[in-house]
Write a structure and sequence with these properties.
Layout: E1 17-22, E2 30-41, E3 55-58, E4 70-72, E5 78-85, E6 93-97, H1 98-109, E7 117-118, E8 121-125, E9 143-148, E10 164-168, E11 171-172, H2 176-184, E12 191-198, E13 201-208, E14 210-211, E15 231-232, H3 234-237, E16 239-243, H4 246-251, E17 260-265, H5 270-273, E18 281-285, E19 288-289, H6 293-301, E20 309-315, E21 318-324
Antiparallel strand pairs: 1-2, 1-4, 2-3, 3-6, 4-5, 5-6, 7-14, 8-9, 9-10, 9-21, 10-11, 10-12, 12-13, 15-16, 16-17, 17-18, 18-19, 18-20, 20-21
Amino acid sequence: LPAVQLGDSEAVRVGQFAFAIGAPFRLDYTFTYGVISGKGRNKLIATGGYSISDYLQTDASINPGNSGGPLCDIDGKVVGMNTLINGLNRGLGFAIPINLANEIGQQLIAGQRIIRPWLGIRIETLGEDQSLRDLFKGLDKGVVVRTIEADAPAYKSDLRPFDVITHVDGAPVNTDTQLQREVLKKKIGQNVDLTVWRKGQTLKIPITAGELPGEIGRASNVQPPAPQKPEEMDNKFGLQVQDLTKEVAARLKLNVEQGVIVTDVAENSVAATQDIEREDVITEVDGKPIQNAAALREALTKADPRKGVLLYLDRKGSKTFAVLKPASS
């Protein structure tokens, strides 16, 4: 049988003609056409690990059953593999670039296992969350470390949540997509040197790239503590907390034994909008270790209404942060 020719997805330009072939709703050899609407689309699927950051977008009609079919250019060369849609008949279809699909296919044909390098961090582009802007004075570009996964390569380094990564091995990174691309160029076990901005200082932090695990997640099968004397951080934040005791830490299998544990978060509160969860352990406030609920209350009371207060959290071994601002600000 004649084989279809592969094109170059890197050379694809927005606005050029494209057509899709597939079997939507079991209707074999369905042919639809449109244009390439965009390139480099990302964050289409929520995931804590590796995600394809360069989907091709097309308005060629794609429906359930098209997945795995070719997206071709006007010369009939395959430039993508149809994969995702956003609703039916919206003209929002997405395809994996053929260069990436071909690279993976060649590895599978050779009997190789597909592995990806991984640092174990959840990130976002600086400026994506406007509420954090005032906390990064003097810095215009970079990638904010939102969370460090438990036992990940980054967890074993000096990297911290709220750090801003500006360079990877000397190469500047301005967006989370650029950072992911730089990491994907590395090999498992290779040393990755990060240039990091932390509260006005520039640091060099080495991390050894690990292998992306098949599943990243966390779950608690233990009931949250029954608060003996919960302390409510008044209604403007919507938090209830209690001092973390060694007994509670042992019962919940926590890796920390000092701090303040969240026992409840009010719906639609400031804390809820910052994704603070029950069983989170607040370990630091504005970079200073927190010992008890009374100290936390005092810090929140003194918080600058414009900047808010920076909380460092331990979440079942993962490290993350939240910034609380009074609702009135």
